[in-house]
């Protein structure tokens, strides 16, 4: 028995595929396309080619592709800029909670007091 889905047209998500409303999907795998861009792969075999805008959204899960696997996202119609013009496109909204923590340093009571212990020059 052969998988005939390859003859049924594109496996990639397009605007027409989400015109009836947002679609929730779980990322099963990430691969690199022939255009050197990441593709999200879902359980049904469909794929979503990740542009720079969507990569920024997915970065809340981490910088490595393995950080994205198992995360639930929502695909919906949005706008993006392409060659200086706004176009309709499929955008990603993370549903699973972000896993990237802020890298901002936290001040301790002692270090804050030490920072405020400067002499006033006058």
Salient structural properties:
122 residues; alpha+beta; OB fold (Dihydrolipoamide Acetyltransferase, E2P); 3 helices; 5 strands; globular
Brief overview, please?
The chain is 15% helix and 32% strand.
Number of helices: 3
* Mean pLDDT across all amino acids: 82
Largest sheet: 5 strands, antiparallel
Count of discrete domains: 1
SSE ordering: EEEHHEEH
What is the helix fraction of residues, given as a range? Answer: 10-25%
Rounded to the nearest angstrom, the radius of gyration is 21 Å
CATH topology annotation: OB fold (Dihydrolipoamide Acetyltransferase, E2P)
- Contiguous uncertain segments of 5+ residues: none
Would you give an account of this structure?
The chain is α+β, with helices and mostly antiparallel strands. The protein has a single domain, classed as OB fold (Dihydrolipoamide Acetyltransferase, E2P) (Beta Barrel), CATH 2.40.50. The chain contains three helices and five strands, in the order βββααββα. The chain has a five-stranded antiparallel sheet. β2 and β3 form a beta hairpin. The model has no long low-confidence stretch (mean pLDDT 82).
Q: Could you give the topology of this structure?
A:
Blueprint lengths: L22 E10 L5 E5 L4 E3 L2 H7 L6 H4 L3 E11 L2 E10 L14 H7 L7
Antiparallel strand pairs: 1-2, 1-4, 2-3, 4-5
